[in-house]
Design brief:
heterodimer; A: mainly alpha; Arc Repressor Mutant, subunit A; two-stranded antiparallel sheet; 6 helices; 11% strand; globular; B: 180 residues; Beta Polymerase, domain 2
């Protein structure tokens, strides 16, 4: 949808993910979208170099989120939010409705 | 000119680097922790020289190679003789979503440094404190505020626009209390 602007589909997926969930890590994104992890890492690095996202270490995992100091963050997020509204219901259900609320360890899913 | 990269202090190094880039048509603005080092008279020592330019990295690489700095990662440059790392931060120069249009110019015997004003440097550090709850950044904002002429009313107005009145109060309290 915004692929022509962002240059590739992976960046679009990463940005939609971060807009929906707030944070994400490369392996998690790769598993969800079934994209090779190095492809995700490459794009995250590109976004980080551009000041759009920042990575923060949480234990041994590098968690990425939007950089609150990015000059055009408000406008970018508005564009992403608008684009998400146009996603097919099936795609929203598949990628952007994962459980984020906590679940006690050991409790069966 | 022979440069002793190991002994030169951060202000001298930045002046040498800025001057060399400028002579090659590359204008840079110093932002980040190195501004704090300069404004705090090295009370805080940063080992990152964060620069912003509109010139593409590929034009910077050969120019910095003349000073012995190699491009080690997309926007990072390192000189094995020098403890400071040069990082070209993505433009534009901004404090959050507000563009920066006024700069400070420091003249040194090695050249002129273009950098954030002390007031914007405080705002830049406070932005990190506001967004990340980073107490090191709060300390740095206080260090700069205590040693330089800054516009407290402008900082207050900006902090309010960010919805950070409470953290701004803590900053003001720290400025009043501390003898840094």
């Amino acid at each position: 949808m915004l692929e022509p602007i962002f240059g590739n589909a992976t960046v679009e997926k990463i940005l939609f993910f971060l807009e929906t969930y707030g944070k994400g890590y490369a392996t998690g994104l790769a598993k969800l979208f079934k994209i090779p992890v190095n492809g995700i890492q490459q794009q995250l690095k590109r976004l980080e170099d551009g000041g759009i996202v920042v990575g923060v270490m949480a234990g041994r995992t590098r968690l990425y989120q939007f950089n609150p100091r990015y000059a055009f963050l408000k406008e970018l997020r508005q564009l992403i939010q608008r684009a998400i509204q146009f996603l097919p219901e099936k795609e929203i259900e598949k990628y952007y409705r994962n459980r984020t609320r906590p679940r006690r360890k050991g409790k069966p899913l | 000119m022979i440069i002793d990269w190991q002994k030169a202090d951060i202000k001298e190094l930045i002046a040498i680097i800025s001057d060399h880039l400028k002579k090659n048509g590359i204008d840079v603005v110093l932002v980040g922790g190195a501004c704090v080092s300069i404004y705090s008279k090295n009370k805080y020592v940063s080992y990152d020289i964060d620069l912003i330019t509109d010139s593409p990295i590929k034009t910077i690489i050969p120019v910095l190679e003349q000073l012995g700095f190699k491009n080690i990662q997309s926007r990072l440059f390192e000189n094995p003789q020098c403890k400071f790392l040069i990082d070209f931060v993505a433009p534009p120069v901004s404090i959050g979503d507000k563009p920066v249009s006024e700069y400070n110019y420091l003249n040194t015997r090695f050249g002129t440094i273009c950098l954030l004003t002390p007031t914007d440097c405080v705002k830049d550090r406070l932005a990190a404190y506001f967004f990340w709850n980073d107490l090191q950044s709060l300390d740095q904002a206080v260090m700069v505020a205590k040693r330089n002429k800054i516009y407290l009313s402008e900082i207050k107005k900006w902090a309010e626009s960010q919805g950070e009145q409470e953290k701004h109060k803590i900053f003001v309290k720290r400025c009043k209390q501390e003898q840094l």
